[in-house]
Write a structure and sequence with these properties.
By secondary structure, this protein is mostly helical. Helix content is about 45%, strand content about 5%. Strand 1 (about 45) and strand 2 (about 50-55) form a beta hairpin.
């Protein structure tokens, strides 16, 4: 029984280490090395250096070469892309 169990557990441990630890760490390291802005989410900062959002969120598409974009209830502002965490019964939600 141990003749089958030991190689199986060894293979499981090796593959878990390779695919669950080494591969993600190497891909993250390569992304940080070659594409640091994109790997960190294409963050946009204002003149004071304060984080304002991502360049990839809420982009309006204008021009004849683009498909019609999804309609935006917040006029493509990033503040409308997240939930408010207010309950439907909260009066502050109506405001």
């Amino acid at each position: 029984m141990t003749a089958y169990l030991r190689p199986g557990l060894t293979l499981l441990a090796m593959l878990t280490l390779m695919t669950g630890v080494l591969y993600p760490l190497s891909v993250t390291a390569l992304a940080q090395l070659f594409l640091p802005s994109q790997a960190n989410g294409s963050l946009v900062r204002d003149a004071a250096g304060e984080l304002r959002g991502s360049a990839l969120v809420a982009q309006p598409a204008t021009g004849d070469g683009w498909f019609q974009p999804r309609p935006s209830a917040g006029d493509y502002a990033t503040v409308a892309s997240a939930a408010s965490n207010l309950a439907p019964s909260n009066p502050a939600l109506a405001e």
